[in-house]
Amino acid sequence: MSAWSHERRDDPTPCRAQDHGRFEVTQRDGRARLGKLHTHHGVLETPALLPVVNPNIRTVEPREMWDKYGIQALITNSYIMWKHEDLRTIAQNKGVHNLLDFPGVVMTDSGTFQSYVYGDVEVGVDEIVAFQRSIGVDIATMLDVFSRPDMNATEVEEAVRETEARAAQSLEAAGDTMLNGPVQGGVFRELRHISAQLMGSHPFAVHPIGGIVPVMEQQRYKEYAKIMMASLPLLPPNRPVHMFGCGHPMLFPMSIALGADLFDSAAYALFARDGRLLTPWGTERIDELVDWPLLMPCVAHQTPEQVRSMKTKEREHLLAKYNLEVTLSELARCKQAVRDGRIWQLVEQRSHQHPALREAFLWLTTAPSFERNLRPERFYTDRDAARDIDRDRGMWEDAWDWVVWSQQTPRSGGIQWGGDDTFSRPHIAKARRTLHMRWEGSGETKQAIVFHGIRGPFRDRINDVLEWLDHHHPTLQPLILTSLGLIPASLEDLNPFAHLDAPAWVLRHEPETAWIQRELQRLGFSDVAFATVDVAGDGMKQRLSEALESLNLANEVHQPMESSQREEARNNLRMRQGIAKQMVLLNASKDVAMAIMEGAEFVVNREGRVKNINDGQGQHLFSPRLRDGGMSLANAGAQAMLQHRLEPKPTGLPRTEWWGHVGKGPAIVVVDDDAEPFVRKGRNVFHGFALGCDPWLAPGQPCLITNASGQLLGHGVAQCTSTEMGAMTKGIAVKTRGGIGKEN
Ligand code: GUN
After folding, report:
1. Which of 311, 351, 403, 493 has the fewest CB atoms within 10 Å distance of its CB?
2. C-alpha angle 69/71/76, rounded to 5°?
3. Is 231 within 8 Å of 192 (Cβ atoms)?
4. Residue 615 to residue 598: CA distance in whole angstroms
5. Owning domain of residue 165
6. Is the pLDDT of residue 14 over 80?
7. Is 724 part of a structural domain of the chain?
8. pLDDT at res. 744
9. Residue 576, domain CATH
10. Pocket lined around ligand 1, Cβ cut-off 6 Å
């Protein structure tokens, strides 16, 4: 007996009665989320892996899973129990937790999968749900109709229709037991849409995505990604999504990035049976190994050769544990990546490990709107191929927008360059779209100067020059070409543009005219002459002088400026920065941003950087942030934003997320009377207390908090999208940054 087997982990604490069945999100990275599902057998932390336990053949004992591996939930098959008299009797008399000797969350499946493998099952729709309830499972599954990828549209439609037709009676039979409502639809996008919408309209607790096992077995991972993209955006966001039968760690990063919360794995045991090892990059056979692909605790003292010579049962048990350990460690890696805001970076890294995964990744991240040549003079890349081959990718734009829209930007910390894939990370796409949609230059601009050649922030290198240009050429638009795109100089320190950690040659790439022109157009400059200036190394002023000359502008860049002129220019630049940041980060229209900045004063630190922006009466409006180039709202700034709002105040909770919101200011969240005193004291807004919000609310974005009569209570940073605000019932909705004291 090994040492650990003496250690017994405590039984779980049941959730509070009023929380039963609720799902809350505690952290997120775009659509990837860490959550908690509240059950009578503990609060299940997600993403979670539910190992499949066959009640007849227990390769790894459920007790061992609980005690040793900290596994909080497992899945077993109620149909097998129902069919075997002995199991059925024990389960009904003692409950499923006792039968399995597992104190955590028990989910059961219904026999649908058996009907897919062996043909029809004999059990009734109500009967199997009632049985699951009678044995005390935490999450039961209705008898859905499996939609295979080789079925035609008519057959799949019938599966979708029949599954939905069984929903109401299954829910009735489940009573207060949480019930899985699977989404079917084969490989048909519209049928997945319909199934997700139909199943989502019934009060299920969890939505598994069904019919994907053959897709995964055939390694059609692009198809798998399409199924996720067709289903998840249409499901209620307050319910966890379970990928039915997905237990290969290779698929975890991509699935989690697209919003999956639960996985189940029979693979750990099935693969162990024929000597196969799971790894995050695929599957390996033990026959051929001298060393372990990953050295896991359970084999720390044994070589593959020693394990090969074990008795069959003993070897199978050890390899099943090995597979479980690998699977759990990849899941842990994904969870940490979500916390670190790097889940898409992990997806990108993992995509290189299997051609089918790479294909899926390229298909996902190569939106038709993605620019060929985001960086200059590329040859025909795999990304171009991915787009050209998949001509229907355009139909998926809405789903990709759903991913991009939820990304938090700006973020703190460096963006790690990882080759061309870097440029299609969804949070970078979000940052670029936000800039292009919201920033507004001057319609008068006819000429621009484009600085390039170093990593941001640029100010130390170009501030003097910008002051000089402001004084001598006030209509000339200064811009900076970063490796992530062209930005106005007033946003020189904005993340991610200013924060790319990359080899020097990525930053020093020769700027390409056609690319700059396209970028200028995206910023709203269609007919603007420009010249470029490399700011790295000596001789920058000389290069600037030549650039100005090429634009037929006065070019005496060495001409000194009087200190009053410098002071005025500095003030103009600070004003412009305050206006640009209000537009891009607070969604203010240019007119509003200018009105708010009128008469503004700047509190600067010793290095001359603006710490606070105050209005003419000395009231604190905003604080530019060093770490991400963002700008925090202060109470008076929030008040000013609210006063300038022209859009009617939100009156309800939206059912859709809507992005055509440019210039309408930060989203408003309306909270009820119970929440008002708490928000005024600066406490967070919890789900369930919001009466309304704007459809453009997005995670990581500043928002204003008001009561129903429109009075400002505070401001904060949204933790969710607008549809999530309408659907979630537990967890933090807005992290409050400022509360506005007593009623005025
Ligand atoms: N297990 C794997 N796939 C499925 C499915 O589509 N439905 C059910 N109920 N169980 C599954």
Report:
1. 311
2. 125
3. yes
4. 8
5. 17-270
6. yes
7. yes
8. 47
9. 3.10.450.90
10. 109-110, 112-113, 141, 144, 146, 182, 210-211, 213, 244-245
